[in-house]
Write a structure and sequence with these properties.
With 557 residues, the protein is of the alpha/beta class. It has helices at 33-43, 56-72, 194-203, 215-218, 222-226, 253-262, 267-273, 344-363, 384-391, 428-438, 460-463, 485-500, 515-532, 547-551; strands spanning 4-7, 10-13, 75-76, 84-94, 99-104, 107-110, 117-120, 127-137, 143-144, 149-150, 161-165, 208-212, 231-235, 247-251, 282-309, 314-324, 329-330, 340-341, 369-376, 400-406, 417-420, 442-445, 469-472. It contains 14 helices and 23 strands. The strands form five sheets. The chain has a 15-stranded mixed β-sheet that branches.
């Protein structure tokens, strides 16, 4: 296995791997592109088998990371002075349905799994069963009292299947409608995310939850919906916290239209009605949903890795840096015979960024506040490593100053701007703009906020607990590259997401130009340095769905 060796101030690759020449001594004052590339090449080596949770590849990754962190001189940051935090995962896989469809009286209409409907389960049972359950359309499935919105209106969903639309109630708003911009317009809020809708249906007692798919609202086609093939992951939960939803998933748009028509309803009319705060749930008259699907399940043992530099003056106040160590493991060989989906950019580059920052922070005077480095497991399985941490924090959320996350950076060269994800959420964006200006760069908001990238990375579980967060990610629109401009930046995003995202070709390349990525990393390091040596607490901005959560914990600060 490849390991990192510390020689003086230099973090170098072991001589036992001659294929990777050791870089020159890294910069003592800034993030070193040579170091980033060397680290990425090391952790994407085939010996790590794609770094999937619960595999031999994980064991090797954890050993490699903890060894590297120790040689940097960082302290173990996990529970009880350990390097790691346990992340037990429930892994489920649906089999072939024994029964799946909708009845109207004596007429049973089967549904084709993967074509008409996509399903998975987060219950630890050997069979997912829903027997002749009523179906209720609940609009967008949103309960947002701070916005004066409640799609449920007290409806009893116990033992019933909730059906709802994707995205926010104002996503399709027409000019002049009262709902226009009530949820941020085209910028998705947490209420638009499928995970929120499933959880909210469970809070109302539903036994099943189905989202009507449409590509504009979801941000991706039906092919993406069905790609997991009935597989799902969740945290291992106590019996009293297991979701009530036996099956969750999506209805294909055509299948949904046919279903509503059979129930005497016009889905297009109901779409418009659901954009009003006066909307009330609508039963699908006569419709009864049934499913009996065998489930293969197992508990997978995984781990987060945590390191820290203890603060000199206020060690109980924490500035957290985050990246995820996991990738997609082994898959089918591609055209070049590569079978390991090792995620060089997603998120090998984030792991490398944190190690480089750790090297530099350790060489600097001890900060006033504690700096924690979180390397999360199971991001690719639904942010489950960071969610496990947020549910079982080693450092209290009310004393966590901020979380700054690095996950996928563009590798096409220097840029004139930096892409902001989550515009208007909190004051960290103002810090980002200030430090970007010192680099001679401007801020460009996320080009497609309706995709909800703000809710799809490892900072988000901490945001849900009120911690101000910032995500540095290169997938939110093309940067204005110094060579080639915006068009070149968009081409990089398109090429990466269309060809290599979550595929074996997400690999290090000698064509990488890390000038822009290093500038982005330096922005994160500058923000962390300032926060770690001040008494300032970033704040959520008015209108953020997380502002009230943070304010409820104000007294400890």
């Amino acid at each position: 296995m490849r390991s990192l060796l510390l020689s003086g101030a230099a973090l170098l690759l072991a001589a036992s791997t001659p294929a990777l020449a050791a870089p020159a001594a890294p910069s003592a004052t800034g993030i070193d592109a040579g170091q980033i590339e060397s680290i990425v090449r090391a952790i994407t080596d085939d010996s790590f088998e794609g770094r999937a949770p619960g595999t031999r590849g994980e064991e090797r990754t954890i050993a490699w990371l903890t060894d590297a962190l120790g040689k940097l001189g960082l302290e173990p940051g996990g529970p009880d002075g350990q390097w790691t935090q346990p992340v037990p995962l429930l892994h489920t896989q649906l089999g072939a349905p024994e029964r799946l469809g909708v009845s109207f009286g004596a007429q049973f209409t089967p549904m084709a799994l993967g074509q008409d409907i996509y399903l998975s389960t987060l219950q630890p049972r050997d069979k997912a069963v829903i027997d002749n359950a009523e179906m209720v359309f609940v609009g967008y499935g949103v309960t947002a009292p701070e916005r004066g919105w409640d799609d449920y209106k007290g409806v009893d969903l116990k033992g019933k299947v909730a059906v709802f639309l994707v995205n926010d109630p104002d996503f399709e708003a027409q000019t002049g409608e009262p709902v226009q911009d009530r949820f941020g317009g085209r910028t998705m809020t947490y209420y638009g995310r499928w995970i929120y809708k499933f959880e909210e249906a469970a809070r109302h007692g539903a036994i099943g939850a189905l989202i009507v798919h449409d590509t504009p609202g979801a941000g991706y086609g039906w092919n993406v919906v069905q790609s997991p093939g009935g597989e799902n992951y969740d945290m291992v939960r106590p019996a009293d916290r297991i979701t009530s939803v036996a099956l969750q998933g999506w209805l294909h748009g055509d299948a949904a239209t046919a279903l509503f028509t059979a129930a005497g309803l016009d889905l297009a009319v109901l779409r418009a009605r659901a954009r009003s705060s006066d909307f009330r749930p609508v039963p699908l008259k006569g419709a009864r949903f049934s499913a009996a699907i065998p489930v293969t399940r197992e508990v997978v043992q995984s781990r987060n890795v945590l390191a820290k530099i203890t603060g000199a003056k206020r060690p109980d106040e924490v500035v957290m840096l985050g990246a995820h160590w996991d990738a997609y493991g082994e898959g089918k060989p591609d055209a070049e015979g590569r079978k390991y989906r090792a995620g060089a950019n997603d998120d090998g580059i984030g792991v490398a960024a944190l190690l480089e920052m750790g090297r530099l922070f350790k060489a600097a005077p001890r900060p006033d506040r504690t700096i924690v480095f979180g390397f999360w497991s199971a991001e690719e399985r639904g942010l489950l490593g960071s969610e496990t941490y947020a549910a079982n924090p080693v450092y209290p959320m009310e004393k966590t100053v901020a979380n700054l996350t690095v996950d996928v950076l563009q590798t096409a060269g220097a840029a004139r701007d930096v892409i902001l994800i989550g515009k208007g959420q909190n004051t960290l964006e103002d810090d980002l703009a200030r430090f970007a200006a010192k680099q001679g760069r401007t801020i460009t908001p996320d080009a497609a906020p309706e995709r909800g990238l703000f809710y799809r990375a490892d900072h988000f579980p901490l945001a849900k607990r009120g911690v101000p967060v910032l995500l540095m990610m290169g997938l939110a629109g093309g940067a204005d590259l110094v060579v080639g401009g915006r068009a070149a930046g968009e081409k990089w995003v398109s090429d990466y997401t269309g060809n290599c995202y979550h595929q074996a070709c997400d690999a290090w390349s000698p064509d990488w130009n890390l000038d822009g990525a290093v500038m982005d990393m330096e922005l994160v390091r500058s923000m962390a340095t300032e926060l770690a040596n001040s008494d300032r607490w970033p704040q959520w901005k008015p209108g953020s769905e997380f502002k009230d959560i943070r304010e409820r914990t104000n007294p400890p600060r």
